[in-house]
Amino acid sequence: MTTDAAPLTVPRRSAGAAALVGAGVMAGIDEIVFHQVLAWHHFYDRGTPDVALLSDGLLHAAELVALVAGFFLLLDQRRRGVLAVRAAWAGFLLGAGAFQLFDALVDHKLLRVHQIRYGVDLLPYDVAWTASAVVLLAAGAALWPRARRQAAREAAQDATT
């Protein structure tokens, strides 16, 4: 990795760009699988069917913006030779987990804009939804220290050559 950036700035930038992609992918999975295929809920279920459909469209637009922006940032880092791949994977998992946790706690419980499913006992669904977020966040958090150490090693190697 050849860069003029500080050694620990590079993994942060790679992780940040990939976190956008991770959040966009998780939003896409939620929107496609749970909103469209299974038709369990819409992003905003407290209005008319037209409002629900509009809210799904806005979520889809936001997810696409996150995906495109994140991919462009990652491609730019790759072009400049500063992409920290392990940090990007950590960021992807952290972004996906953060989206999932935000959806579970804020959208479902705090704001109550929708529930995972209606007409059933919510507890197993809430546990599974939140547990998936925790697993993604834990995996990303486990990769992060390794990514930082790898970036520091690479920077030290570049400094000696």
Structural class: mainly alpha
Poorly predicted parts: none
> Beta-strand percentage?
under 5%
Radius of gyration: 18 Å
The helix-strand sequence is HHHH
For the sheet with most strands, the description reads: none
Helix content: over 70%
Number of helical elements: 4
Overall morphology: elongated
CA distance, first residue to last residue: 12 Å
Write a concise keyword list for the protein shown above.
161 residues, mainly alpha, 4 helices
General description of the model:
It is a single chain. The chain has 161 residues and is mainly alpha-helical. It has helices spanning 9-37, 49-80, 85-110, 122-160. Helix 1 (9-37) crosses helix 3 and helix 3 (85-110) packs antiparallel against helix 4. The model has no long low-confidence stretch (mean pLDDT 90).
Annotate the secondary structure layout.
Blueprint: H1 9-37, H2 49-80, H3 85-110, H4 122-160
Helix pairs in contact: 1-2, 1-3, 3-4
Summary?
It is built from four helices and no strands. By secondary structure, it is an all-alpha fold. The longest helix has 39 residues.
